[in-house]
Amino acid sequence: MNQNFLEHIQSPERPVLVFDGAMGTNLQVQNLTADDFGGAEYEGCNEYLIHTKPEAVATVHRSFLSAGADVIETDTFGGTSIVLAEYDLADQAYYLNKTAAELAKKVAAEFSVPEKPRFVAGSMGPGTKLPTLGHIDFDTLKNAYVEQAEALFDGGVDLFLVETCQDVLQIKAALNAIEEVFAKKGERRGLMVSVTMETMGTMLVGTEISAVVTILEPYNIDILGLNCATGPDLMKPHIKYLSEHSPFIISCIPNAGLPENVGGQAHYKLTPTELKMHLMHFIEDLGVQAIGGCCGTRPQHIQALAEIAKDLKPKVREPRIEPAAASIYGTQPYDQDNSFLIIGERLNASGSKKCRTMLNDEDWDGLVSLARSQVKEGAHVLDVNVDYVGRDGVRDMHELVSRLVNNVTLPLVLDSTEWEKMESGLKVAGGKCLLNSTNYEDGEPRFLKVLDLAKQYGAGVVIGTIDEDGMARTADKKFEIAQRAYRQAVEYGIPAHEIFFDTLALPISTGIEEDRENGKATIESIRRIRQELPGCHVALGVSNISFGLNPAARIVLNSMFLHEAMQVGMDAAIVSASKILPLAKIEEEHQKICRDLIYDNRKFENNICVYDPLGELTTMFEGVSAKRDKGVDVSLPLEERLKQHVIDGERIGLEDVLKEAMEKYPPLDIVNIYLLDGMKVVGELFGSGQMQLPFVLQSAETMKAAVAFLEPHMEKSETGEDNSKGVFVIATVKGDVHDIGKNLVDIILSNNGYRVINLGIKQPVENIIKAYEDHKPDCIAMSGLLVKSTAFMKDNLETFNEKGITVPVILGGAALTPKFVHEDCQNTYQGKVVYGKDAFSDLNFMEKLMPAKAGKNWDDIQGFLGEFAEAEPSQNGHKSAEKEKSAKETPEEPKVIDTKRSEAVEIDTERPQPPFWGSKLLQGEDIPIEELFWYLDLQALIAGQWQFRKPKDQSKEEYQAFLKEKVYPILETWKKRVVEEDLLHPQVIYGYFPTQSEGNTLHIYNSENHSQKVTEFEFPRQKSMRRLCIADFFAPKETGVIDVFPMQAVTVGEIATEFAQKLFSNNQYTDYLYFHGIAVQMAEALAEWTHARIRRELGFATEDPDNIRDTLAQRYRGSRYSFGYPACPNIQDQYKQLELLGTDRINLYMDESEQIYPEQSTTAIITYHPVAKYFSA
């Protein structure tokens, strides 16, 4: 029968299957007594009802089957002997599970028909003991699951459901048990795993959804999804990840929302309609194929799901699977961008005396500390080797790994020559490990045993190039062994991407003749493996190559060998990251000698060696310390030091270098040749992601200081305007007060030799035209952050046409897209239009424009000519007049406005009473600044405003270390300055207004006379999906209920703008960036703080999260919307909002161009309805 289940769900029709609802919830409503359970001592043991009152369980089954469920679950959630032992029923485990399966099958048969077959899932819960936390050992748990699985199999279940999983190691025990039963019975049945992601976003032991997929991907399961803990809203990010990355069918079986304590009982509030709407979205947009209900779901919920399941088709997915290792917390991809997989080597008793000593002393804490130190050094995974003569290695591996999994976030490489030690580690490591290693030295049985462990526990495997004849030394022999192992492993069921070949880096440092070609053989074997064995990886133990050399020489040779191996395809290495040098840090001469040693490029004359790179290397490093010189190289030539001061943003010693330079060069040459050369390097580093924006601004400040120092020494003619490389006019357009992007362009261009005319913010086109006439610029740039600013830009371009202006125009700002600039704007303007992605793209354009103009290779209409011409992203052609005319003349269809209320929004919901009607003013003394800091969105501040973004080639650990060392101290400094210097003046006006909805309209009434309407707001409605409209969240007029409509307006004051302008005008560019960013985000934090106050006053504080991450993710009751955004796009409604709130009391207003003042201010309308979240209408 189980093949029918798999054939059914995997059929081309891809039916959506509906699982049943909550067994426990639906047993409770039957008001069962202690006698029904067989006595007080068994009360609460639902599994025993199979024996004492089976009709109660059958009633639940029938209710869900009648509602339309395709799959019912057996009443065996706590059916292992381990759980049943708590009721002294351990010996009844087989009987109760088999009987439960038979009962479910019998009831399902009553409803099953060919056009709608019904199936039974054997429920296997997590039990009460988590193996990762040491509550129970792996084998005991697995054996209990074997007994349960065999009973369910014998009872006839169609599929096995390992559900409500809280520990990945528990899942592995269950899967191994089920596979053992399949092997014993000679038959496979469906296999489904359902994990539980808690409200904090991980499994109970801390596992992220990405790690779940990586850990389970090697297993032969059919369905992977989520159940329990939360409602569907909090499951969405996890389901989205599964949609994009899981190779399995996806299931989603949520609770009926988060439980609330009502009279000592868990009460679930999510209605059948709400559950249906969520899961409809998951099916159509995320490809979910199995749905159902967990805690709190009744037959009505399942009926609602069955109604949609018959007509919906899951979205066709194309999951992207990324081969990776995993700890119990997160994943580590095998393929590292611009790097290799670093396998930390210091936790190795075979190679480290320190590790051996700790192991012999059983200093487990010391070993954990040693592991942590490698995390800080940048290791991606950790090699764990406890091989030490005279010790019990199986016990040692268990003791060490069981501590590492809970204390270190990196995946593990279990390293041993004995498979028993590897398995000991696998039984306590819930993540996805690598096994290091297997080979043919002891014949095929031992080789296959390690492959069997890899399959059984879902691990990758390292294969050494050793066979029955011993260690391979030549490239041909290494490849021959690798090819044999590759074929056998793939045939055995190990995917190629889970195979790492270790071609053995043998020493080239001994001077022995037969060792001379070891390096060359290893390099060549790697090249052939990567070319001829597709999909596999190559891992090396690099440090062997330099065995016996001086430590300083070892670091250089190891680093060079690593580089050479990477060039031919090595993508993983066992190294100590702190003992590897980047190629740029190794002197050219050292590089050459090391290459000669690796490739055995000795020179002979008359059979006598006249050049031996090994001897050269030994002599060169004789007496040299391995400690690195962290100081600045003062021996750099003067010209390089000038350049380096700018690159490093180093002001200390700058004036001394400039004085020295003036003895040799004219001041203007110092600026235009050497200092600008440094700024050019800064631009290249920024463009390649190697330098963060704040460091760019430090370089700009240094450049500015150098120019200021040199200017008094320049000849009068040299300080004139004619010395600039070009003239550049820039302005933020009318109605837009955002100036950070514009000012960054000013900083970069002015410090690269251009004269920048910065007109400021809110500039009407007349001012831009006057600046053009006064300064005759080579280019005009317009900036804008708001969507409406793009319309002003197009209008300005049309005005430029009328005035005969044809110079190139750069358009930049967050509201723009390349397509809009290259098409809409270019088709408007007679000259050339350029998309300004950032300040350096503006600079790059100017650096190309000015030489082109000087060489007569630029035409304002045609663009670049001659050698400068290239395929431009913007086209110079215009749309034909006929095309535009026909587009305009197309008659518009009359619009029918949909005002029908969304079924997804319950009318029958709690309507709170506000603490007051009308508005309330909060001043600085009412707003504790420390509370606002808690609400800061650090991601938006650090990566967004300050642009400290993680480079692609930097690991998460390195990025976090960088933030901790460099960025967080900056944050603390500015928080302190904000408080001590009184740099922000937070003020809030918020209030509650009586309201009722009618269709898509909200009627707002007088705060004192609720029958007197004062204004109204109209909102758009979604045309598809849930058809949401903000008006739906409030009580309809026909109910007669007066609802509450909260609103808020917040500002951090005009001082934020004034102080930022002061910093900019004083050339304190870095401080300007930092302060502007924190002012923007403090205004947002103030909005969050005010919204939380409103939720608290309305009585919903208990639903608020206790951490900022969940707060920013809207995991609270209701939502907050600002006019101008998709759900309420009419920004002119903000005039009415400000008038209702009376914001003139804090000088907060919106001008005729719809720009709010002060600049760092926000307004919002609040909804408290539980369905309300962000949406686009």
Could you explain the architecture of this structure?
There is one protein chain. With 1177 residues, this protein is of the alpha/beta class. The chain is 42% helix and 15% strand. The strands form 10 sheets. An 8-stranded parallel beta sheet has the order 1-10-7-6-5-4-3-2. Strands 13-14-15-16-17-20-21-22 form an 8-stranded parallel barrel, surrounded by 6 helices. Strand 11 and strand 12 form a beta hairpin. Helix 15 runs parallel beside helix 16. The two termini are 47 Å apart. About 3% of the residues have low confidence.
Pick out its properties.
1177 residues; alpha/beta; 8-stranded parallel sheet; 8-stranded parallel β-barrel; 39 helices; 42% helix
Helix and strand layout, with pairings?
Elements: H1 2-9, E1 17-18, H2 23-28, H3 49-52, H4 54-67, E2 71-73, H5 81-84, H6 93-111, E3 119-124, H7 138-154, E4 159-165, H8 168-185, E5 190-195, H9 209-216, E6 223-227, H10 232-245, E7 249-253, E8 260-262, E9 265-267, H11 272-286, E10 290-291, H12 299-309, E11 324-326, E12 331-333, E13 341-344, H13 353-360, H14 364-377, E14 381-385, H15 393-407, E15 412-415, H16 419-426, E16 434-438, H17 444-457, E17 460-464, E18 466-467, E19 470-471, H18 475-492, E20 499-502, H19 518-532, E21 537-541, H20 551-567, E22 572-575, H21 588-598, E23 603-605, E24 608-611, H22 613-620, H23 638-648, H24 654-662, H25 667-687, H26 693-710, E25 727-732, H27 740-750, E26 755-758, H28 765-775, E27 779-783, H29 787-802, E28 809-812, H30 818-825, E29 833-836, H31 839-854, E30 858-859, E31 863-864, H32 881-889, E32 918-922, H33 929-934, H34 938-945, H35 956-980, E33 987-998, E34 1001-1005, E35 1013-1018, E36 1043-1051, H36 1054-1065, H37 1069-1097, H38 1108-1112, E37 1119-1121, H39 1133-1141, E38 1149-1150, E39 1156-1157, E40 1161-1167
Parallel strand pairs: 1-10, 2-3, 3-4, 4-5, 5-6, 6-7, 7-10, 13-14, 13-22, 14-15, 15-16, 16-17, 17-20, 20-21, 21-22, 25-26, 25-27, 27-28, 28-29
Antiparallel strand pairs: 8-9, 11-12, 18-19, 23-24, 30-31, 32-33, 33-34, 33-36, 34-35, 36-40, 37-40, 38-39
